[in-house]
Amino acid sequence: MNSDELYEQLLSIDKEIKQTEKRLEEETKDLERREIEWKQKVDEYKQKEEKRKLELKQTEEREIELKNEIETVTNEIQRMENELEELLRNVQEKIENVEKD
């Protein structure tokens, strides 16, 4: 091989190296872009998960509140029924007393 051929080979190798470097830079940029996109997706998922957890907690709290309200209303109904029964007994006693007189 003469020096011109060696020089041409060297130029060709240099050109390949530059093309490879350029391709690697582009691939690196693409990977960085994709990494940013994935990080954003992960952040979005985490936000959605936190929101879901908060909603679940609020739902559980509301369920407890409703159960307590139901228990309160049930107790109030029972109290009123007891009062009505007592009133009915009193009325019946008065009727019986009036009939005796």
Key terms for this structure?
101 residues, mainly alpha, rod-shaped
Strand content: under 5%
Question: What is the number of helices?
Answer: 1
Rg, Å, rounded? 43 Å
Instruction: Profile the largest sheet.
Output: none
Structural class call reads mainly alpha
Percent of residues in helices comes to over 70%
Shape, principal axes of CA atoms: rod-shaped
Give the topology string: H per helix, E per strand: H
Q: Extract low-pLDDT stretches.
A: none
How far apart lie the N and C ends? 145 Å
Number of strands: 0
Write the layout of secondary structure elements.
Elements: H1 3-100
What does this structure look like?
The protein is 97% helix and 0% strand. The protein has 101 residues and is mainly α. The longest helix has 98 residues, at 3-100. Residues 3-101 form a coiled coil. Keywords: Coiled coil.
